[in-house]
Specification:
2 strands; globular; 276 residues; two-stranded antiparallel ribbon; Farnesyl Diphosphate Synthase; mainly alpha; 12 helices
């Protein structure tokens, strides 16, 4: 199966599962459930849950077995997007070509929809086929003050041209931590041994950092506003070089898995090639 067909198949699996686990709009409180479904089902590549499924495949487990951890990572990701878009944060009016949640449902309901999605994410993580406590732990660490929330705080506080340390901190915690958690949750739920988990962790950490650098390159539309982007620190060519190095590091970490890691390798290179 080529990568395009693989991604399409996994996206369909995830979309159907999300439709099922999200409360129906007719269930009270209906407005809250409508807001939750609006943000989750508004599109997206579903890359993080696909990585969860692909990690399980590396261990030799059918991806459907770890669908709940995969859905958990996507719901947590959506919660972060809802809150990130709020006027008190990035103040964005659109997300994936549609009005953001607070524009449609109001700020209070958007905040509560994000809160509810976070709670549902942990509910699903606790329904992992094995190692439920470890899977929940991974999600909690990635979501907390030393994970996504910490990265968001640093991003909000950032001003002027950032140092390399400051920029790497934001990239690691705002983006890479959730990628790494997606991979680790899939591997743990599939019964990975210590060495397998270590190699997949290296893959996830490098992939997540490369992903954020690539996003900075793709978002480089304003030549006068590079203060909080890696472009301001490294320049376009330097950023591309770093993304290439990180991608190669990610792929090298999973060589020992052989053919079972083929899709993880393809995903890494596909992400890199969309920039240049």
């Amino acid at each position: 199966m080529n990568l395009s067909k693989y991604l399409s198949k996994k996206q369909q699996l995830i979309e159907l599962a999300l439709e099922t686990v999200l409360p129906a709009e007719v269930i009270k409180p209906s407005l809250l459930h409508k807001a939750m479904r609006y943000s989750v089902l508004s599109g997206g590549k579903r890359l993080r849950p696909i990585l969860t499924l692909a990690a399980a495949e590396c261990i030799g487990i059918r991806p459907e077995t770890v669908i709940n951890p995969a859905l958990a990572i996507e719901l947590l990701h959506t919660y972060t997007l809802i809150h990130d878009d709020l006027p008190c944060m990035d103040n964005d009016d659109t997300r994936r070509g549609k009005p953001t949640s607070h524009k449609v449902f109001g700020e209070a309901n958007a905040i509560l929809a994000g809160d509810a999605l976070q709670a549902l994410a942990f509910q699903l993580a606790s329904q992992s086929p094995i190692e439920q406590a470890r899977v929940v732990y991974e999600l909690a660490v990635a979501a907390g003050s030393q994970g996504v929330v910490g990265g968001q705080v640093a991003d909000i506080a950032a001003s002027g041209t950032l140092s390399q340390h400051e920029l790497e901190y934001i990239h690691q915690h705002k983006t890479a931590d959730l990628f790494c958690a997606a991979i680790r949750m899939g591997a743990i739920a599939a019964g990975a041994d210590k060495v397998q988990l270590q190699n997949l962790t290296i893959y996830g950490a490098n992939l997540g950092r490369a992903f954020q650098i690539i996003d900075d390159i793709l978002d480089d539309e304003d030549p006068d506003d590079k203060s909080c982007s890696c472009i301001g620190l490294y320049g376009i060519d330097g950023a591309k070089d770093i993304a290439s190095i990180l991608t190669n590091n990610a792929v090298e970490a999973i060589i020992t898995f052989g053919e079972t890691a083929e899709m993880l390798e393809s995903i890494a290179y596909e992400m890199l090639e969309r920039t240049f």
